[in-house]
């Protein structure tokens, strides 16, 4: 009986919350849709200094990323992965004004997101802000699918 209840709980969690390890959307990562080859996020929704996490459904599966306004006022975007730790699929969390790698613990100042590439730095995403809207090309998000291979972990 306990086995059936635990199995049912795992199945419900996978269905309702999503599990990125199985190629599904992570809980707390709302899925964004592309229109006319780009995704658009109103700046007012991400302008509070907090990291906002999203998921884009590429042809190979979900591509997770975050957007935040750094302390210098710039809207920044990066994949929730890096060149070094991406295979672990752990991503980042925010601690004050820094993003912290959940795998190795390295910290990255918010004003360096999109500025520094490589290593364990959050992998940058090209973006632009126009008329109060953050715009990211769907092709740029799809290019980040390499950080989220369906067959690892």
From TrEMBL:
Task: Give every Membrane iron-sulfur containing protein FtrD-like domain span.
Answer: 46-148
Q: Domain of life here?
A: Bacteria
Give one Pfam hit by family name: FtrD-like
InterPro entries referenced in this protein's UniProt entry, alphabetically = FtrD-like (IPR018758)
Protein name (Swiss-Prot/TrEMBL): Membrane iron-sulfur containing protein FtrD-like domain-containing protein
> In which organism is this protein found?
Geoalkalibacter subterraneus
Give the source lineage, highest ranks first.
Answer: Bacteria, Pseudomonadati, Thermodesulfobacteriota, Desulfuromonadia, Desulfuromonadales
